[in-house]
Design goal:
The chain has about 550 residues and is an alpha/beta fold. The chain is built from 19 helices and 24 strands. Strand 1 (about 30-35) and strand 2 (about 40) form a beta hairpin.
């Protein structure tokens, strides 16, 4: 029986993080703020001192539309980074921090898997360096300041019926989606409708991941719109004196977290907005710092390329000036068979025709990424049940699109399983053929930006909006028309129907809600039935997580 991810992680021979930073990246020991022997923060002073260094090459790892069969995007990101180091390149990886909600819900952890992991795995998947707690408490401090402002009647007056700033908790909890607060009498304030989002959907998480430095973070925090007055004019976080104390809570968290892979290669794990309801990328600070320290930086964007890659290109790169040099789309035989109509229980049986049918999903993702002017490679994340004929079908489909597909066995073999992939991706990144451009210009109207993504990336016929949403588009266009849009959509389909697999067409994307993220600098368009506070499944992962007799964590994966 193969070892579990956590068993493999426990057997790792980790080096002191100070040694990893020094030997691999040249980071002096006094620039690292240690959280025990195997994790540390790189001081912002040191990160900012690197500004004049040339940038390395930036490589994005994205994926086909996810299925219950698994794709392994984070695992491939780690494996590719290890493979690059094996072939003599100075490379590092940048990942998002996992949210506790999915860890105890259904998705599980997000530190890679098999022999392509970042460690210490338990720490990374649980409390890590406390960044998410800092973001959550900063968010809820602003919530408390808003209600306190209303309670005391402080100017500028906030209309308690028009408070848009919710609260957050880093756990899947559907019971908190819609609540009424301030019950219990006069001493507790004025009752009003409220609700919770998960921390990774917080605008503060988005701000945290897009900020250049602490000063930029503080300024962005001040721009957050928390509600309106009775004349429907915006009330900002700076009006309730939020930015100062919030930035104090975030001053340590903003420094990038340095850890290592199982092969002792450096990794930044920092920030973690959800990709189906936020912009799904690690912090710009971590990415930009990595580009100064390494010749190649491999980063990921959440879920399939229709969400993660699109937001990486149209939001993160647009707002931070990053320019990707190459991209990798992760696919698996198993997932493509599901997109081709095979049930999960039948995935172990060879079915080349289903793989070919499922490749329509991969092909749309390939074309989408190429439309941004970024060269693409397919990584076929290998499973033991894959047959040569099935893998060959994927390679043929990729070659018909003018690109290469490589089998990658990093789950079983670590960096040794991605050497061919690493050689090709490095050559692509070095070729200079990338001509990155976002999919829409800044001056396009907000409604047309949403429509462009729906049609060009998702393959939809059109978007649909009721009268209230059309009015929101008009109102937001006046002051925020130059903002990019962040689509909140199911990750399981190009459409808003999670059961519609493959590469569907002939559908419409319904826009249910628009949310202004003024501090982050984008508009969130909520589609279909997507929730910004997930719920736990019938049998959550939490049911199988416990402390064993030896005090070790069991059931975390």
């Amino acid at each position: 029986m193969p070892k579990s991810d956590i068993e493999i992680a426990r057997e790792a021979t980790m080096k002191p993080v100070v040694e990893v930073g020094a030997s691999k990246l040249g980071i002096p020991a006094d620039a690292l703020l240690n959280y025990g022997p195997h994790k540390a923060k790189v001081s912002m002073e040191y990160a900012e001192s690197l500004a004049d260094r040339p940038d390395g090459k930036l490589i994005l790892v994205t994926a086909i539309t996810p299925t219950p069969a698994g794709e392994g995007k984070t695992t491939t990101t780690v494996g590719l980074g290890d493979g690059m180091n094996r072939i003599g390149k100075k490379a590092m990886i940048c990942l998002r921090e996992p949210s506790l909600g999915p860890c105890f819900g259904m998705k599980g952890g997000a530190a890679g898997g098999g022999y392509a992991q970042v460690v210490p795995m338990e720490d990374i998947n649980l409390h890590f360096t406390g960044d998410f707690h800092a973001i959550g408490i900063a968010h809820n401090l602003l919530s408390a300041l808003v209600d306190n402002h209303i309670y005391w009647g402080t100017e500028p007056a906030i209309d308690s019926r028009r408070v848009s700033w919710k609260r957050v908790v880093d756990m899947n909890d559907r019971a908190l989606r819609e609540i009424t607060n301030s019950l219990g009498g006069v001493a507790n304030g004025f009752p009003r409708s409220d609700g919770f989002d998960i921390v990774v959907a917080s605008e503060i998480m988005a701000i945290f991941c897009l900020s250049k430095n602490l000063e930029d973070l503080t300024e962005r925090l001040g721009r957050i719109v928390v509600g309106q007055n009775r004349d429907r004019e915006p009330i900002y976080a700076r009006d309730v004196k939020g930015p100062g104390p919030m930035s104090v809570l975030l001053k340590e968290a903003i420094a990038p977290n340095l850890v290592q892979t199982l092969e002792n290669n450096p990794a930044f794990v920092h920030g973690g907005p959800f990709a189906n309801i936020a912009h799904g990328c690690n912090t710009a600070i971590a990415t930009k710092t990595a580009l100064k320290l390494a010749d190649y930086v491999v980063t990921e964007a959440g879920f399939g390329a229709d969400l993660g890659a699109e937001k990486f290109f149209d939001i993160k790169c647009r707002l931070t000036g990053l320019k990707p040099d190459a991209a990798v789309i992760v696919a698996t035989v198993r997932a493509l068979k599901m997109h081709g109509g095979v049930a999960k229980g039948d995935l172990g049986t060879e079915n080349v025709d289903a793989v070919k049918a499922g490749c329509e999903n991969m092909i749309r993702h390939i074309r989408n990424v190429k439309s941004f002017g970024v060269p693409v490679t397919v990584a076929v994340n290998q499973f033991i049940t894959d047959t040569d004929a099935e893998v060959d079908a994927i390679k043929v489909a990729a070659e018909a699109e003018g690109i290469k597909a490589f089998t990658a066995s990093h789950w079983a073999n670590g960096g040794a399983g991605t050497e061919d992939l690493a050689h090709h991706v490095c050559a692509q990144a070095d070729s200079g053929v990338a001509d990155f451009q976002p999919i829409y210009p800044d001056d396009m109207s907000l409604r047309d930006k949403v429509k462009t993504i729906a049609q060009k990336i998702y393959g939809a016929d059109d978007i649909s909006c009721d009268g209230a949403i059309e009015k929101q588009f008009e109102d937001l266009q006046k002051d925020y028309g130059h903002f990019p849009v962040c689509m909140a959509k199911t990750q399981y389909s190009f459409s808003t129907d999670p059961d519609l697999k493959g590469a569907p067409s002939g559908f419409t994307i319904p826009i249910r809600e628009l949310r202004l993220s003024n501090g982050a600098g984008f508009i969130v368009a909520v589609t279909g039935a997507i929730m910004t506070m997930p719920g736990l499944p019938r049998v959550p992962s939490a049911n199988n997580i416990y402390l064993g007799e030896n005090g070790q964590i069991e059931g975390l994966f």
